[in-house]
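Quick illustration, no need to memorize.
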Amino acid sequence: MARETTAPLKNIVFDMGNVLMTFDGPYFARQFAASDEDAALLEAAYFGRGEWALLDSGTIGYPTMMRIAEAHLPRRLWPNLHDMAAHWARYSEPLSEVNDLALRLDAAGFDLYLLSNAGTRVHEQLGHCPAYPLMKGRVISAEEKLMKPDPAIYELLCARYRLVPAECLFVDDNADNCRGAEVAGMRAFHFTGDAAALESYIGLTR
């Protein structure tokens, strides 16, 4: 996306899933299933349901999500479901190139922030995210009862941490979320897996 402002870039705001950390429901489910067929059932009942967005929005909690998932699985898979729900985050891995870039951005004087559609157990992923300890603040959808791409969630981040939107670059793998950030006055970069392109856009020199 092209820059549309000449304001100095001071703040880099990262999404988490598939930007800083992997999020791959089918892969997670395979770690808790004895067959591909069972993995597909687990993924569809938990990560693949529309109610997952309600979990991220804070509308429902994990006990409700579990009951919904159980209702869409044979009882023999309930132990697998419970194990997956408790431990899938350990299989969410850092995207090394983006985390390495974030560390260099911090060293170069940029302030880093997190803005993610995620549930209240987001710490289970962030606990092994190399860039997270460097961040000056965060906004998590389930904690705020707001979700991207609603411009209000980006405005909340800026208000809470006294950021000038035009001095912020928001990085997300979802184009709609990037457009929401632009409505809120930020610059946005649609991340498609190319950390070098992000680095080039920011203009960081090694």
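The longest helix spans residues 96-107.
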